Amino acid sequence: MGLDEAATKPHEQLAAHLTAKLDAVNELIRKRMASRHAPRIPEVTAHLVEAGGKRLRPMLTLAAADMCGYGGEFDVHLAATVEFIHTATLLHDDVVDESAQRRGRPTANLLWDNKSSVLVGDYLFSRAFQLMVETGSLRVLDILANASATIAEGEVLQLTAARDLSTTEAIYLQIVRGKTAALFSAATEVGGVIASAPETQVRALYEYGDALGIAFQIVDDLLDYQGDMSVTGKNVGDDFRERKLTLPVIKAIAAADDDERAFWRRTIEKGDQRDGDLDHAMALLNAHDTLSQTRQDALAWAEKAKSALAAMPEHSLRTMLIDLADYVVARIS
Amino acid sequence: MGLDEAATKPHEQLAAHLTAKLDAVNELIRKRMASRHAPRIPEVTAHLVEAGGKRLRPMLTLAAADMCGYGGEFDVHLAATVEFIHTATLLHDDVVDESAQRRGRPTANLLWDNKSSVLVGDYLFSRAFQLMVETGSLRVLDILANASATIAEGEVLQLTAARDLSTTEAIYLQIVRGKTAALFSAATEVGGVIASAPETQVRALYEYGDALGIAFQIVDDLLDYQGDMSVTGKNVGDDFRERKLTLPVIKAIAAADDDERAFWRRTIEKGDQRDGDLDHAMALLNAHDTLSQTRQDALAWAEKAKSALAAMPEHSLRTMLIDLADYVVARIS
């Protein structure tokens, strides 16, 4: 890719370092995505799989396995597995969120229909399942089965906790683990497991992925209230308008007086939003300083990710993963 | 259940014979369906799991394992697994079909929403995955991963083949394997595998489930054109109105002259249906004798199912499974 020299961002450095393996992952993804009888499948997925995703999760698996000295081929299977699971959840999320755009392009459910998004998501999930069975590692299967359950449970929890003002930070954290961190931590952990790394390292890889994923999602939620649309591609206040309870609002509700609670009840719980409400919500977040508290939380998770890697041996990939944790929170620092 | 004496139908005889194991399956299903944090999950699934399903697929697994002399507990895990996979596909099917009723009750997507149906289906699939990993059998995982892929591919194929007059009997068969037979054959096969049955018996169990599932689905499609609504719960001609290409129509199209082909193109491909079209369609099916040809196909698959069991040792369960194959086609004989 010619990135070796020019690469500055950590995920580009990772991609440059892992380029041969990443090519093998992309080849395997293309091969396993194909369906002899149902051409709709690659149509729907090519759209997503080739839509400029950074392959962040596959890189986490490849980097973990490489750091642990793995010399086999199943890291490629597992990297493709996590990308398939990720893509499957995106397809189903777009149905659930009724999204019209992802990564600046129309979503599959808009281009085709919800039916294809549901069924092709199921297809990718079953293909992921086949890929991981091929590794022959029951421990890997156990980790990915548990991650899948955490993802699904988190998604349902998000649906039921939505618009419920009693949502706590603990529930938020569980939703975030489901949405993002469970697949990050499974991606890094299975890399260590397939390489037969010592238990302390497998645990460290899990901790890194978990903390990185949580930091990643908190940053995303924070940027919704203070991001630059030209950078984030999101309008400020989308989550407020969609009545999503994210960390800045959960913290503000916990600190709210009666009037403020009535405001949140009207705007989030009842969905009765008027002109000026977003400005008032922003004022409340600022009054209770919850944006900077949320920022502190994200930074603390990034630090936790970095400390976890202390258990890993010195390695250029370890340095890149440490830089990646810093990069994830750089947008809000 | 007090069914031992009164039981006449084969699935009731199976239930009576397997009653202790079935109770364990139901207990495991209840336990694994629960979610500490997302009460919506058991709400949505209880509705389906307790809505009077016959537990046909779990019974196939239990019967297969029992016939092969299995003495362990993992047959219960696998029976719950296949029921979870079945329930997950029902939830997703209802979204795809935009169904309003199943088994005479409102569907989950109508009672709650499509979002819950998609996500709770994903949850059940991941719970199924966890259950099968607990058996520790890579071969079982391989069989169920392949069945999942066949199911998902068949569903997508059905979507893309819908309303396409060039759909052949071979494509129909693949759709039917995805919709029905893949889970039947996986259910019986894993019963033999977990019991470490000889290969000839494992193969026979697979063949039985495959042929039984195909017979089952062909009967269902045939009854749509000639069933008694008070028995089937379906209106005659629902598939025609929904422009579904099932076996009686595929056979009629293959035998159609130009005028008839124009009729099918207008009604099925273009969806321009007028008063009297269903009567005309029925007349064409009768003119080409495709209802009785379809009936012959179903009977032949039921025979194939029964012959497969010749490889199994003499056993009261074997007799019940033979009777079950006859029972499946009895409604059209």
UniProtKB/TrEMBL annotation, chains A, B:
It is an enzyme of class 2 (transferase). Its EC number is 2.5.1.90. InterPro entries: Isoprenoid_synthase_dom_sf (IPR008949), Polyprenyl_synt (IPR000092), Polyprenyl_synt_CS (IPR033749). It holds the Pfam family polyprenyl_synt. It catalyses: 5 isopentenyl diphosphate + (2E,6E)-farnesyl diphosphate = all-trans-octaprenyl diphosphate + 5 diphosphate. Keywords: Magnesium, Metal-binding, Transferase. PANTHER family: ALL TRANS-POLYPRENYL-DIPHOSPHATE SYNTHASE PDSS1 (PTHR12001:SF69), GERANYLGERANYL PYROPHOSPHATE SYNTHASE (PTHR12001). This is Octaprenyl diphosphate synthase. It comes from Roseovarius litorisediminis. The gene is ispB.
